Amino acid sequence: MGSIEALSLAMGTAWTSGINLYATVAALGLAGRFEMIQLPQSLEVLTNPIVITVACIMYAIEFFADKIPYVDNGWDVLHTFIRVPAGAILAARSLGDMSPGLEFAALLGGGSIALAAHGTKATSRLAINSSPEPFSNWIASFAEDIAVLGGIWIIFNHPWLMLALVFAFLALIIWIVPRIFRFAKRGFAMLRNRLGGIKPGQATTSTP
Q1: What is the DSSP string of 171-190?
Q2: 20 phi, psi to nearest 5 deg
């Protein structure tokens, strides 16, 4: 695997892991197992039947949890501590044997990309859940699944395109951060009102 392909794999898997870790691991493992793609030796562990089975089971659970308003928010909070470290590890292992310094840099870079993807997904979902209808939530979930599977395909077939997409995503995140905070604030307000029994649009009145 050339340097561009390895970099595409590292950055691409960090990005897809931040969106859906289990879909990423399952897709890589199955594709590698059936020799649809050539994984580097450091990632061949993903083709282990046990790893594939666990990833598929967890993906099935996430598939349904991710489509239930507010359950998906709790799932995202929990997976802040799973997707980001896993994305960092996948990115570092994608690059093969490196010096300790480069490996640490790869962990930081992969973790940052995974965190950006995960944070964007989580805050967007929080804002989407402020809508009373469930369809936007389902559409977002299916779109994320397609993005992950499509991203895996692009990594191995168009590595330059994946690199361009990741860099464009990071540039967009830098530009859109203030809006993301506003979305998150709105989503948290709606969640707080929901937990407090206040219906959307219902005004709170103060007692004298």
Answers
A1: HHHHHHHHHHHHHHHHHHHH
A2: -155, 100
CA–CA dist 139, 75 (Å, integer): 17
Q: Is 173 left (phi over 0), alpha (psi -120 to 50) or beta?
A: alpha
Over its length of 208 residues, how does the chain's per-residue pLDDT go in tens digits? 678 999 999 999 999 999 999 999 999 999 999 999 999 999 999 999 999 999 999 999 999 999 888 899 899 999 999 999 999 999 999 998 888 888 899 999 999 999 999 998 988 888 787 776 667 888 999 999 999 999 999 999 999 999 999 999 999 888 776 666 666 666 666 666 666 665 555 544 444 4
C-alpha angle with apex 204: 199 to 207, nearest 5 degrees? 140
